[in-house]
Each structure stands twice: as C-alpha cells, then as structure tokens.
Write a structure and sequence with these properties.
alpha/beta; Autotransporte_beta
Length: 966
C-alpha cells in the first residue's frame, strides 16, 4: 500500500501544508519526531502505518486544509478503491479499512464499501473521479452532480447522506483554523461551520455561497478574530453567527425573499447581479440601478450576530433583516429594502447607497450616511438615537419623513421630494435632540416641489434647537442661510443686502425670520399665477409654503426660546428673580438691540442656565439699586447714624442728675504725707468742683460704618467734631461730620463725599427730658455701571447725582433713678421728619449705539414721618465715667413723594422710593461710654446699629475719639 496513489497524495498534501506553515506554526514542534524545517525528511519515507502513527499530526494539519484539499485526497482514495493497484490489493482489507476509518470515520468507510456494491452509483463515482476530487463538485453543489435523481434521497441509505444532502460541514481545531484561497458552495443551504479553540484565520481569496435554501454560517472562536471574506452570497436568506468576532466581506449579494429575474453567477463581482426585465412579475420599478427584482413572501431572513460587520456588497430584502445583535457597528455598502422589508440595527453605516421602497420598515439606533440614502417608503422611518449625514453624502425623503430620537448632525445635503400635495401633520424630519448644520455646504437643502397651492411644510424641526454655525452678531450671516436652500433648481440670491428669487424682490418680515416672494407669472418652476413662496428659518425649525398668501407666522418670544432651549424650569427661575420684568429686560438686550434675529437663541444655546441667571440678577440688582433711595442716600444715612450715636453719648454725659444738683462734680484731693484718722467717709476731706468751672466741651471722633441693603453693601470713613455745654437746665450742642464712602452692588459701583451738620438740645423739668435735634446732610455721588459680560456690557455707563437730606426729631422721656441716682432708666417716645432730595441723573455711555440704555431720571424728593419708641439705660461711675444703651423702634407713618418718581433704564420705568413707597419698621440700638484719660481729657467710643424689618436696610457704625473740657 506504500505504493498506492493515496499514500502519494497524502504525502504531497502534507508536504505542501508543512512547507507553508514551517515558519508560522511553532506549535507543531511539540510533536515528537517532527522536523518542521525539513518536511521532505519527515514524510519522504513514511508508509501508511507511519501516517497512522502520526495521525495526531495529520489531524492538526487538516485543521488548516480547505475543502478542495480534502476533495483531492478523497479523489485519489476513491481511485485506489475503484481501480486498485496490485500493491494495494494485497493489504486493502486491512490497512485500507484502517486508514479510511481513522481519517474519515467508520460511517464513511461503510458508505464507500456500499458505493462499490451499488452499480447505480457507478456513474456518480465516475463523475467524481473525472472532476479529480470533490472540491469542484462541492462548489457546484450536488444538484449539478445528480440532476436526474433530484436533490434529496439519493444517498439516504448511506453514511454520507446527511453531510452531502444539506451541505453541513464543520471545520474544527483546538488551536487556529486557517482558511486560504478556498471556495465553499452550499447548493442546498445547510450549515457551514468554522470552530477554533484559538482564532479563525482567513487568508487570500475565500468565497462562500448558499443557494436554493436558507443557510447558516458559523464563524466561532474562543479568541476575537478578524475575519476577511472575499465574496459572500446567499439566494434565500442567511444566518451568520460570529459571536464576538469582526466580519468583513469585500463583495457579494444577499437576497431575502427576493431574486433576480434571470439569475447570474452570484459569486462574480457585480454591482448589479440581476438582468433587467421590466415585465417581471412582482418586480420593483424603483430599485437602484433599475435592477429588476422578483419578490416573494417566503419565510426568509438575514440575521447577523457579530461584534462588527462590514459588508461591501448588496443586500436585497423583502423580509426581515436583523442586525440588532451586532454589538458594534454594521457597515453596509448597498441596501435595498422592498415592500415587506423589516430592517433593524444598532449602529448602521451606509457607505454607498440605501433605497427604501413602499411599506418598508426601518429602525436603527444610530445611522451614519456616507453615501446616498433614499427614503421612498410610505411610512416614517425611525432613528432612535443619532443620525449623521457626512460631508458629500445625501439624505432624500418624501412627506412621510424620518423620526430621529437624538441629534441630527448634517454636513451634507438633504433632498425633500414633496410631490404629494398632502400637507403632513408633523415635520418631515423631526429630531429629539440638537440639529447641527454645516452652512458651508451649498446647498444644504434641496426641495423638489410641484408647487401645489396652499401647502405648508415643516422641513426640519428640533425639540431643542438647530445649530446653524453662523455669526450671531451678523444679519448677513443669517440671511445667507436662505441662499443655501435650493428650490426646484433655483435659490435665493443676495446682492448688496438685497435678496431676490427668480429676479423677484424678496420681502423680509420680523428681521428676516420670514421671507416671502411672489413668483413670476410663467410656467417656470411649475408655478401658478400669483403664487407666493414663503420661507422661514427659525431657531428650531425650517418651514416653507406655497399659496396665494404669505405663510401664517407668529414670531417667537424670548419665553419661547428659553423654554425650548433651557426648559420651563429655566424660565421659572428667571421669573423668580425679577418677575415678568426680568424677561422684558433680557428681551430688550437679546432681541430688540440685535440685528441677527437668532442672536437670542444662539446665546441661550451657548451659555449655561447659571450664566443666564447671573445676567438676570445683575440686571435686577442694578435696576433695583438705581431706583432705591436707600442706595442713593446710603452714605448720608451712614453718616447720620454715626452722628446720632455720638449725639446720644454727649446727651447722656450732660444729663447726669447729680451734676445738675451740684452733687456729682467733685474731686478727691489726697494730702501729701497725710493719713486719715478714721475710715468713716464722713471724715474724708473733699473739695468740690463746681459745675460751672469747666462748662465747655469740645470733642472730635473718627467714625466708620458699613451698610447692607438688598443688592449690595457700602462702607464709610470720616471725622466728627462738635461742641456742647450745659446752661442751667438746658443742654445745647452742635457738630459737623465728613465721610467718604463707597458702595458695591454686583456690576454697580459708587463713590461719594458726604457732609452732615446738626444741632441738638435737651431741656429738663424735674425728671422729664425734652430733646430736639435737626441736621442737614449733603452727598455728592459718582456711580459707574460696568460689566465684562458681553450681553451686559452694552449698558455700561457712568453718572453723577447729588442728595440732600433734612431731619428734624422731637423726643420726650421720663427718668427712673436707682442707686443714688447713678442708674437711670428712661422710656421715651418721639417723632421724626425726614426729607430726601435727589437731583436728576443722566448716564453717559462710551458707545452711542446703545443710547437707549442710558439711565435717566428727573429731580425728585420724598418726605417721611416716623414714630419713635425707645428705652434708654444710663450708668454713671463717680465723676468721670459712664456708659449707656438706647434701644428704639421706628415705624413709618407717612411717606410722600414729589417730582419724577421713576427711573428709566433698560427700556423700563422703575418706581423710586422704598420699593414704591413701601412702609418700613426699623429697630436700632446704640451704646457707648466715656472714661477719664488725663487732667481735662477724656476718651470715648460708641457703636450704633439700625436695621429695617420689612426689607433689608442695615446700617452699622462705630466711633472713637476724645473730649476736652475748658
């Protein structure tokens, strides 16, 4: 048997395969006695017994042997069986059976023995031998081998029946499975499986086809494999199971419930595998390249399971195409979906062309169009997440349109075929996310319309907004969008700011948000007489209409923009800051002053809600401050509070009941080198100092203060000097104070010089105290509004104004005395009259283009009558020291404004004077004291606090200074 043809064939096969894998498969080196570097030495002297001993080696090699190679071996084997040589006859009974059983299995051995006994099969074996193996026959299918006997049942009694009948072939290996330059043709469908313990390797040109019945292609490996197939074709659907592998097919045609009218060689590379036949039954007349496809309703489908699937061929489907189990992306060159097609995918890329016809169903999570996508379906197709149209790619659709759940990234061209006169109820392309357009593409929209009268279409619509990528500060940049919309082969033209269409002047409405043009009375563009074309490019949609009137149009408001872009919650938060006025302020800044009508939505698209709220707060705060007299006379109020604190301290000092009775102004003189005889105080030598010996008091203090009102805070620094004395039972005094102040309120900053001049007096009638005071305060203010925010910078300005305030106060109190009149509690009641005068204000701006934002108000004044209730506590320590605490509650009784009571700013007239003359209640407390420093000099200090209870108005002051008597 060593001289048989089979032995030679096997040796040639092993020599060929080992020669190829010598430098690639080092795993074979572990087989004992195998010299991979010298395959001739390995197999040159091998007998059949040697091969049987090395069957593990042979099995390893056959993991990389193609069906054609196996066919050659089987061919020689059959030749030896049918026409045995003399050498083979001697041991065929033993070694022949053993060889066939070992390498091909016992069932195959039984089948071959039976074949030799069956004369009906003799002709079949002759054809096998004439074909020099099973490879060519396997490619052509058994239908070509035995057409007269049918495709089923011939080998039913034999061991090969199931294998050949269905074309079920398995190529298994514990390591790698290598396929090179092989052809697999399953003429009756069936299953072709490649199973590798490690990876699948396809090299060279490998062609796989399934015909006549649906087939299954298994490409399985434990390790991730990148599988490249040259040609893959199927005539009746196909199931591909590649698990986690990546599959790439260079060419081929897959038919699902569809077929060529006259089939051609499916394995030949062709863009159009079908012969044209306009009279074919059930043919689609709209298929790409005029391909005529016969459709049927068989239970056929294309289902793919893989990680990535790249098919650079054609798919013709009138049934289910399920790519939903492709985990990564599916890249298809040409996809044709007919009436009953049902397509589903996760991430789909169309690299060349897709055509959807009639009632085809199409659903994918993400769609990337790199070529042309033509939607001629009579139902809306769905892209659940994002749709991308690449540069130089195109999307065409009719009135049934496309629903996009996420973003639409459009960098190519969209063609709208509006031949159906029906007006769709929804947008032709509706996106749930942002639509991003590249306006440099010319044109980015093509519209083919039969000019049906009184029809309107929403071409594009986003539930968020459309990003046009234009200059928000340029009207010309916005109007250019209209020139990039092609309508029946013509587009709007712009020349020196004038727009025309077909030579007719285009009318602009609402700053260009709506364009309209009366079409010429001609048959050009299929336009009827007096037909009007309307176009509208809005922040979230593009609309057009034809009819005998201009399209109905209501321009969007800023509220519409805010809700559409930032959401209803954003609008609620803006209104919570400044009410309806806040939206009006923003509308003035974003819409009324901008030439590009899309400035407002573009600004909202590119700025966060926190930024918008910050702008709103800056506006609201600035308007509130400039219209609030508590801001405008803030510095004078601080200075008055500091003066009041010192005034109370001086009145406390001179109101000592004992000094007025001649009992308290005394000094103790200790005789030098003398001792008291007795500790009895009555024996102490004292010398009284009469009150009229040093009746004059002169004092000076440094004062400071801080104010906190709604919207900002201020500080003040200055000096306070005064004189007073006690004349019989009357205290008389006066003072003058100066303070330099500053105030900061977000984007507003103010500096002021302030002067306060006042007098005070207190008269005593036994334990009754009557106090009067009056003061006049003047402030010169310089205010600057300055924001670095681009939106608010247009209101930057500066202005000057003056304030003057007159205050008159009357107070009555009764003294309750304790501890030998050294402790006094005095409840008190009084009234105060406060007059505020404000000069006119007129802002100055660097940019005259925004003069409508100049702040302006005329002179005005306000009168306030207040009721005061308080309690004062005084404590005197001997002759020289004291402290006091006075708590008071003030309530506005009357507020009267005169003159101009509004401030004009940012297009609004804002009421002045305590938020529209709102009454307030103030609580205040002042405390201070004095102690003797040296000879006729004293040091004193005081603190005052006054705060509004109805609205924020807090003043805090402090002073420290010295007093001398003479």
């Amino acid at each position: 048997m060593n001289d048989s043809g089979l032995n030679t064939a096997i040796k040639n096969l092993i020599r060929q395969k080992l020669g190829f894998w010598t430098g690639l498969v080092g795993g074979l080196a572990g087989l004992g006695g195998v010299d991979l570097q010298n395959p001739e030495k390995l197999i040159g002297s091998m007998s059949i017994n040697d091969l049987l001993d090395k069957k593990s080696l042979f099995n390893t090699i056959t993991g990389f042997i193609s069906a054609n190679d196996i066919g050659q071996v089987i061919s020689v084997m059959l030749q030896d069986i049918v026409k045995p040589s003399d050498a083979l006859k001697n041991d065929v009974a033993t070694l022949g059976k053993q060889m066939i059983g070992e390498f091909l299995g016992q069932d195959t051995l039984n089948s071959l023995e039976s074949l030799l006994q069956n004369q009906q099969i003799k002709s079949v074996l002759d054809k096998v031998l004439a074909a020099k193996g099973l490879g060519p026959i396997y490619e052509q299918g058994l239908g070509d081998l035995i057409p007269s006997l049918g495709k089923k049942g011939l080998f039913a009694p034999y061991g090969l029946s199931q294998l050949w009948q269905k074309g079920d072939f398995n190529f298994n290996a514990q390591g790698n499975v290598f396929v090179q330059n092989s052809n697999f043709s399953n003429a009756n469908g069936g299953t072709l499986s490649f199973n590798a313990g490690d990876t699948l390797i396809f090299a060279g040109n490998n062609r796989i086809s399934f015909t006549n019945h649906s087939g299954t292609l298994n490409l399985l490996s434990n390790q991730v494999s990148n599988i490249d197939i040259t040609t893959l074709s199927a005539s009746n659907g196909l199931k591909i199971n590649a698990a986690n592998n990546n599959v790439s097919v260079s060419q081929g045609d897959l038919f699902i419930n569809a077929s060529c009218v006259q089939p051609s060689d499916l394995t030949a590379p062709s863009a159009n595998p079908c012969t044209l036949n306009a009279n074919a039954n059930n043919a689609s007349n709209n298929a790409s390249n005029n391909t005529q496809i016969a459709l049927n309703n068989n239970d056929e489908s294309l289902r793919v399971t893989a990680n990535d699937f790249n098919f650079s061929g054609n798919i013709y489907a009138n049934g289910v195409v399920d790519f939903s189990k492709i985990k990564g992306s599916a890249n298809i060159k040409n996809l044709y979906l007919y009436n009953n097609a049902q397509f589903q995918a996760n991430n789909l890329t169309i690299s060349n062309q897709a055509v959807l016809e009639k009632n085809a169903s199409f659903v994918t999570n993400n769609l990337n169009i790199q070529g042309a996508f033509n939607n001629n379906a009579t139902r809306k197709i769905e892209v659940l997440q994002n749709l991308t149209i690449a540069s130089n790619a195109s999307l065409s659709t009719g009135i049934y349109g496309i629903q996009v759940g996420g973003a639409l990234n459009h960098f190519g061209t969209i063609n709208f075929n509006l031949e159906n006169p029906q007006t769709p109820a929804t947008a032709l392309i509706q996106a749930g996310g942002v639509i991003n357009l590249n306006a440099t593409q010319t044109p980015f929209i093509n519209i083919n319309n039969s000019m049906a009268n009184n029809t309107a279409y929403t071409l594009l619509k986003s539930s968020r907004y459309i990003n046009y990528n234009i200059n928000p500060n340029s009207l010309q940049s916005y109007l250019k969008l209209y020139t990039l919309i092609n309508i029946n082969g013509n587009h709007i033209e712009e020349n020196n700011g004038v727009l025309t269409y077909l030579g007719q002047r285009v009318l602009l409405q609402d700053k260009g948000l709506l364009l309209s043009v009366a079409l010429p009375n001609s048959n050009q563009n299929n336009a009827p007489k007096n037909n009007i074309l309307s176009l509208s490019v809005l922040h979230d949609q593009i609309k057009m209409s034809y009819g005998n009137k201009i399209m109905d149009f209501t321009p969007p408001t800023l509220q519409d923009y805010i809700v559409g872009i930032q959401g209803q919650s954003a609008l609620n938060q803006i209104e919570a800051i400044g009410g309806n006025s806040a939206v009006k302020w923003l509308s003035t800044l974003m819409m009324e002053t901008k030439e590009n009508p899309l400035f407002a939505p573009i600004y909202l698209e590119n700025h966060s809600l926190n930024e918008i709220l910050g702008v709103t707060k800056d506006l609201q705060n600035t308007i509130s401050l400039i219209s609030n007299p508590n801001f405008r006379d803030n510095a004078t109020n601080l200075l008055e509070m500091a003066s009041y604190t010192q005034q109370t301290s001086r009145l406390t000092k001179l109101s000592d009941f004992r000094s007025r009775e001649g009992e308290s102004n005394f000094s103790l003189l200790e005789p030098k080198n003398k001792r008291f005889r007795d500790a009895n105080p009555s024996e102490v030598f004292v010398k009284y100092s009469q009150p009229n010996k040093h009746p004059n008091n002169l004092w000076v203090q440094g004062v400071g203060g801080a104010s906190f009102i709604a919207g900002g805070n201020g500080t003040l620094y200055g000096l306070n000097a005064g004189y007073d004395r006690l004349v019989k039972n009357v205290i008389l005094g006066g003072y003058v104070a100066y303070g330099y102040s500053d105030f900061n309120g977000r984007i507003i900053h103010s500096l002021a010089n302030n002067v306060d001049v006042g007098v005070y007096a207190r008269a005593f009638l036994k334990r009754n105290e009557f106090t009067l005071s009056a003061n006049e305060t003047y402030g010169g203010n310089a205010t600057n509004i300055n924001s670095s925010n681009p939106l608010l910078s247009v209101i930057n300005q500066r202005y000057h104004y003056n304030t003057w305030a007159t205050s008159v106060n009357g107070n009555y109190g009764y003294d309750f005395m304790f501890k030998q009149k050294s402790v006094v509690l005095k409840p008190q009641v009084g009234v105060s009259y406060h007059f505020i005068g404000l000069s006119g204000m007129k802002g100055k701006m660097n940019d005259a283009a925004y003069k409508q934002f100049v702040m302006h108000s005329n002179p005005s004044n306000e009168s306030v009558l207040t009721l005061n209730l308080g309690l004062e506590s005084r404590k005197y320590f001997g002759q020289n020291s004291y402290y006091f605490v006075t708590a008071r509650l003030d309530r506005d009784l009357l507020i009267k404004s005169k003159g101009d009571n509004v401030v004009r700013f940012v297009g609004e007239n804002t009421l002045l004077y305590r938020k529209g003359e709102a009454f307030n209640t103030f609580a205040s407390v002042v405390t201070g004291g004095e102690m003797h420093l040296w000879r006729l000099m004293y040091v004193n200090a005081g603190v005052g606090l006054k705060l509004g209870l109805q609205y924020q108005d807090i003043n805090l002051t402090g002073n420290v200074g010295m007093r001398v008597v003479f």
